[in-house]
Amino acid sequence: MGPGKPSPRNGGFDTERVIQKSPEEDQNLPLTAHLVELRERLLKSLVAWMAASALSYWKLEPLLRFLLKPLRAALPPEGKIMFIAYQEAFFTYLKIALVFGALWASPYILYQAWAFVAPGLYPHEKRFARPLILASCVAFLGGAAFAYFLVFPRAFPFLARFGGELLEFKPVFRDYVSFALRMLVVFGLCFEVPVALAVAGKLGVVKARTLSRARPYAIVGAFVVAAILTPTPDVVNQLFLALPLVFLYEASILVVWLLEPRA
User: Fold this and answer.
1) So where does this one cross the membrane (predicted)?
2) Residue 250 resides in a domain
């Protein structure tokens, strides 16, 4: 089959040739070619996620021990974690497997997203996009690690003692897992602030000077966000989130300044 002929696969379009197109050629491709390629890459990503989730379910015990460790440290020696519905344990296990499956499969999923978008980018855009993807992954994992290793060990003992002597702490498995996973995601997204502002700065949407002038509002906003998202009402735990947000904002100003074009 000659290079100029359409492949009989995928409705007459060869997705491997689509990947190799230049931005000018990519713009001239019919919409159906892009849709066929998008469908294939979504299916590949879905299969990778399901396979990684199945592997996570198969090796669930170490993941479960890792996730429950902060809560177990807050319980007395005889303390137990309960489930209160017949199907609760199964569906909670499934949720854990799906979340960790998405984490394990994320490099492959990001590759598929990059392979779909890259043909439409110019070389200078690709040079910016590659470190951007890496920085996004590192920032998210850094935020999740910050929550797990620094916030959780302080938050859960505080919450376990909050009821005083009148109430006995009996954690429910489903509620804890949902809460812990949500906090990990929230902290991960909060740590994406420098990446988002770097993109905005590269696109010319914001300037370092503008961010510097907005510093007082950003500091107040960081403490408001910390007060809303922190699982405990004490000031110390709120500072654990607010201070990193302020630091990340300051880092964002520096990054945007470095990315600004010089006269």
Assistant:
1) 90-111, 132-156, 176-205, 217-233, 239-259
2) no
Per the structure, how many domains does the chain have? 1
Return the minimum-mean-pLDDT range out of 67-76, 96-105, 138-147, 223-232: 223-232
State the residue for tokens 């590759």.
Answer: 111
User: Which DSSP symbol is given to 261?
Assistant: P
Length of the chain: 263
Question: What are the backbone angles phi and psi of residue 172, rounded to the nearest 5°?
Answer: -100, 130
For the full predicted model, state whether its pTM sits above 0.85: no
Q: What domain range includes position 129?
A: 9-191
Q: Residue 63 is encoded by which pair of tokens? A: 């993941």
Contact (CB, 8 A) for 180 and 95: no
Amino acid sitting at position 173: F
Q: Following DSSP, what letter does each residue of 196-221 receive, concatenated? A: HHHHHHHTTS--HHHHHHTHHHHHHH
**Which residues, 6 or more positions from 31, have their beta carbon under 8 angstroms from its beta carbon?**
none
Residue 229 lies in a domain: no
Domain assignment of residue 120, yes or no: yes
